[in-house]
Input
Amino acid sequence: MYGSIELGGTKIRCAILDEIGNIVKEIRVETKDPEENMKDVVDFLKKNPVESIGIGAFGPIDVDKESKTYGFVLETPKKLWRNFDLLGSIKKELNLPMGFTTDVGASGIGEYRYGASKDKRSSLYLTIGTGVGGSYIQDGTLLQGFSHPEMGHIEIAREEGDEVESFCDFHDSCFEGLCAGPALELRTGQRGENLDKDDPAFDILAKYIAKGLMTYTMILRPHIIIIGGGVANKEGMIEKIRREFEKLDNHYIDIPNADEYIVFPELGNEAGLIGGYVLAKEALKEE
Output
């Protein structure tokens, strides 16, 4: 059996998966105090022994194995979690092989191995929900340099006259600050799920999301882009994004048909846990 932990900004999922990746048992807890949350996770894994564990966590996190703070959550907006030794807190209680990456990295791995990009050499995975985050995989390997990508914080050119406050505490016009769920709420005064699908705010967000996707496309040229999260999942939203995306290229490069190039995750909400399962199996092999 393998353990998979998906640490999200609002909830934590911890699951036990069998040899072929079926989820056989799971708990979900609200993301609150890190010490309490990790106790719940560790207790669950002690009651349900596994051979290894894969972890996907909200960021920013330290993924550099040579760093003194490898496995730490860094300067996250979630203040209680800042500089918390996430990996160390689990290793202290469970002496097992562990794989560790971002939550979007784990989801990207899940989709690459078993989902929408399983037949592609490269894949970009993006979630647009409470925040915006992304990962890129080339020939089975997650792209990262001295740390993991921060795809939610690239600069997006605002539409003329758009002076709505950015949701991001650090940037005035980054992808996350303009397109995440809380940014939509700042723009409209309502949560996205309560807005009509034809609300003009979604047209603006579609333009901004398309700009972000075009930037990634020009730099990385992925074979496929997978987008998920509450904002992207709004009825009719992916169609708006595809239309805006096709307007931006102006026939400069040869891009696949947007309906096939920009797609939803095939694994749905299980992508992160499946990715964690892959990380756990790889960690066991490396021991």
Q: What stands out?
A: The longest strand covers residues 23-30. The longest helix spans residues 200-220.
